[in-house]
Amino acid sequence: MLDISLLEIEQWVTAFLFPLFRIASFLMAMPMFGTQLVPTRIRLGLALMMTAILVPVLPTPPVMDGLSLSTYILIAQQILIGAALGFCLHIMFQIFAVGGQLIANQMGLGFASMTDPVNGVSVVVLGQFYLMLTMLMFLAMDGHLVMLNVITQSFDIIPVTMINFSAVKFMDIALAGTWMFSGALLMALPAVTSLLVINLSFGIMTKAAPQLNIFSIGFPFTMVMGLLITWISLTGFLGQFNLIADHALGVISRLIEVPHG
């Protein structure tokens, strides 16, 4: 008959639950896995499976009283760490959605919106196209495996112990919003500049010949040229994706970097 003490049971439970909170919050905030298209049961099952695989190789967390304040603080820390890592990756995908929004507004397709089944909001068609293309490229390059490796390595860098909140640089998460808008602007700048030149040309033609209804042909011409410019810009889309993905991984690595000194 097995002689198992209450202390051993508490140690087994804490060794499994604390990593589970970090992994589950990461999957809830991560794109593709944390979307409305993936049922909650599948996400929970995936989190339980990953935790069961990682627990034997993780450092043993401290045994804590389940009703103590320090236990709830530790749980909150694990949730914040996992959600921060997944949120930074989510920002990377939104760069292409915002860039598509800028291009669509300039070419006159800002009114052509559709419901995004992933986020449950209305997104312009061009932004949804860029978002779907980015997700397919991310999966084709095994980006999801890289992110699962990141969450695994986070347990070695920031173990499941009582830590100072400064160990996770939450200010970098706030500054990632500026990175999202700057990256979207850089991505859409060639197309927006080209379309701006076309609109200025039609404006000059209208000023030179007011009797001609230039805007009757200007709108469809701008739309066609916008689609052509978007098609041409796809040749350099892979390079833009690599640069933004490298920067996103750099931001994520800095979030879990152990501060020196």
Walk me through the structure.
This protein has 261 residues and is mostly helical. The protein contains eight helices and two strands. It has one domain (6-255). It has a two-stranded antiparallel ribbon. 30% of the residues are buried. The model has no long low-confidence stretch (mean pLDDT 77). Keywords: Bacterial flagellum, Cell membrane, Cell projection, Cilium, Flagellum, Membrane, Transmembrane, Transmembrane helix. Belongs to the FliR/MopE/SpaR family.
Poorly predicted ranges (pLDDT <50, ≥5 residues)? none
Order of the strands making up the biggest sheet? 1-2
Biggest sheet details: 2 strands, antiparallel
Please indicate the count of domains. Answer: 1
Helix residue percentage: over 70%
Count of runs of 4 or more consecutive helical residues: 8
Question: How far apart lie the N and C ends?
Answer: 51 Å
Rg value: 24 Å
**What is the average per-residue confidence, as pLDDT, rounded to a whole number?**
77
Strands, count = 2
Structural class: mainly alpha
Q: What string, H for helix and E for strand, traces the elements in order? A: HHHEEHHHHH
Amount of beta strand: under 5%
Organism: Neptunomonas antarctica
Transmembrane segments: 12-30, 42-59, 71-97, 118-140, 179-202, 214-234
Pfam family, one: Bac_export_1
Keywords: Bacterial flagellum, Cell membrane, Cell projection, Cilium, Flagellum, Membrane, Transmembrane, Transmembrane helix
